[in-house]
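Reopening this ticket.

The earlier resolution said the output was attached, but the attachment link was broken on my side. Pasting everything inline this time so it's all in one place.
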Amino acid sequence: MTLSGAVAMGTGVMIGAGIFALTGQIAQLAGPFFPLSFIVGAAVTALAAYSYIKMSNAWPSSGGIAMILNKAYGPGTIAASASLLMALSMVINESLVARTFATYALRPFGLESSGLLLSLLALGLIFLAYAINASGNRSVSVFSLVMSIIKIGGIVIFAVAAIWASGLDAGAFSGEAISGGPVDFVASVAFSILAFKGFTTITNSGGEIVDPHRNVGRTIMIAIGICVVTYLLVAIAVGSSLSIDAIIAARDYSLAAAAEPALGWIGFYFTIAIALAATASGVIASVFAVSRMLTMLTEMKMIPHSHFGMSGSLRSHLLIYTVVVAGALAVLFDLSRIAALGAFFYLVMDMLVHWGVFRHLRREVGARATILLAALVADFVVLIAFTIAKLQTDPAIVAYAAVGIAAAFAGEAMFLSRGRHSPAHDHAPHSHQTAKRGPK
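Inline output:
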């Protein structure tokens, strides 16, 4: 993939999840200050990106996060479990965005509450993502580039027009600002971070990018920059058109709800079309990245694998498994809860990445300890605030997250203890002691 294609893929995942699937949940926690949550989320993400950029510049690869964890901790339980948490959070993201696609598609017909139709449309998009990914890397790159240009241009047009029509002193920004307090605001940043985590798609696909030692880091920072500007514009546009209560009520289709009073039916249908483009490209790009990450984990003997009688390459098998799990999640689960679960999984994995780079690899890759520790502390503060907020409103999801994380670690420990990793890994010295930095 070229630099532009990689940027398009990364922004495809980020914008698909951040704007169309998470805006309402962020507003529910942050109140009228929800646009600021995106700014704080971008700042935390930029800190986090430092670890990934330094590692990817040294060792670009497909499935890059698994590579980072493996080099930091060795091919053991911590690396395998954290990599699995990342993969699960990405699959969760696919189901979340696919469900959002279905909601926007059904909104013009007033059928967005039909569970059956939502499930069928979400499954249809996930299977389309499979077909495009199965056709090869260039198809993903070209499709992502075209869709990203369409949706980013369309979103900016919507945002500017809505702000122009409504002004900056209407909707959620009119009258006295009321929010849930500082803890809830910090908790909202967990969803904002989840909205930006698509940058890891770029890391996971580093081996597919032209001149990766130079372009992986550039791609990540360009994608984050594009997304924070886009998110801020849209958040202000939605907040100027709708009250906080209205945003929360329409959280699965908040942009379409904001477009109608501000821009009329033309704006409404325009926003629907842009939402469909954004969410479709987001799912396609995410399937591309997570299937490659799982392929690398399997090749490293860090997760079990069965062919189930299928022919073809390992990567084709993992692509099928990815869309099957995403489809099941899209059909069976409450996606607001799954979004929270994805945030828990991602933050825990992200903290393990920063600690591993700080503890074992910072000198080898030339990373500054202060930045790594700042990223670690920022993740920890957000995780604690998010946990407190969820314990107050939905304690069950905290329990599910704790059980899921514990199950990932216990399952990986059991699998690896049975000696299913390769002899090469058995006898390899710890990676942070022996790995040589790749060429610049």
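Reporter confirms the inline version is readable. The chain is about 80% helix and 0% strand. Residues 35 and 236 are 6 Å apart (CA to CA).
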